[in-house]
Amino acid sequence: MAALPPADLGLLTPHFQKISFEPDAMLVRSGDELDQVYFPHSHSGAIAFMVAMPNGQTVATTLMGREGALASLSVLGPSRSSVTAIARVAGTASRISAAKFRFAYARSAAIRHVVQVHARTLLLQLQHVAACNALHRVEGRMARWLLQIHDRVPDDVLPLTQEALAQLLGVRRTTVTLTMSKLRVAGAIRSDRRGFVEVDRTRLESVACECYALMRRRIDRMSCQELSAPRLALALCQESSFVTSGEGGEDHAEIKAASPVRK
User: How far is the C-alpha of 23 from the C-alpha of 26, rounded, in Å?
Assistant: First the structure.
């Protein structure tokens, strides 16, 4: 929304309804019609796209926070969701009916452009997560998910249960317990008291597989180059060292209102 000119944003805001969601809240169920679009707010909230297998196992394919819009692809027309969207961290969002969002999308070239950029960032994340799940060890993958959630939470203590982590990773809880023990030995997790995980970000980054930095760099660059709102583009290009350096750079840059990256 920060990338939209005021007139285009004005096509949406009169129809927004503010909602809150708790951890494990199911915002969209697989097979449901996509009749609402959700814009998570800036202070917190992380929504995972989950795929369930016939044997009951689940695995996350994408994580979304303030940088995204849940069900934004409903602009393509009435459709049903192929994934289940579950809140992994509590937060708030602005909600608008898919019909009103489609109406605004049809009237605004700026909204169409932002949705297209967002769709490409989602596809990029999906591709990286698929490759990561196939090629990387569970410790690196868990560190990546923890970093992605940490990007969307204003605290080093993440409200995550072992069950939630098992669902994100598509593994058993015993595997999560063993993996968290390894992360604790590495100093990446300072504690993992019941229902919470306290992280040491610097050490967690050293444990994570390369997918985290690669995804973040590519998504930052895409946002900087393709979101055309002058004030947002300026913030992106000045504040994202991933964009300016082309390499890993300082890992605590923040893309305000466009990317989940933390300071």
Answer: 9
Alpha-helical runs (H) found in 14-153: 98-107, 109-135, 138-150
Give the least confident one: 84-93, 155-164, 251-260: 251-260
How far is it, in rounded angstroms, from Cα 126 to Cα 30? 17
Give the pLDDT confidence of 12-51 residue by residue, as tens digits. Answer: 999 999 999 999 999 999 999 999 999 998 777 899 999 9
Q: How far apart are CA 80 and CA 68, in angstroms?
A: 19
Query: What's the rounded Cα separation, in Å, for the pair 157 and 161?
Result: 12
Domains and CATH numbers, the chain: 6-108 (2.60.120.10), 136-207 (1.10.10.10)
For the record, the structure tokens of 175 come out as 């595997």
* Residue 17 Cα to chain centre, angstroms: 21
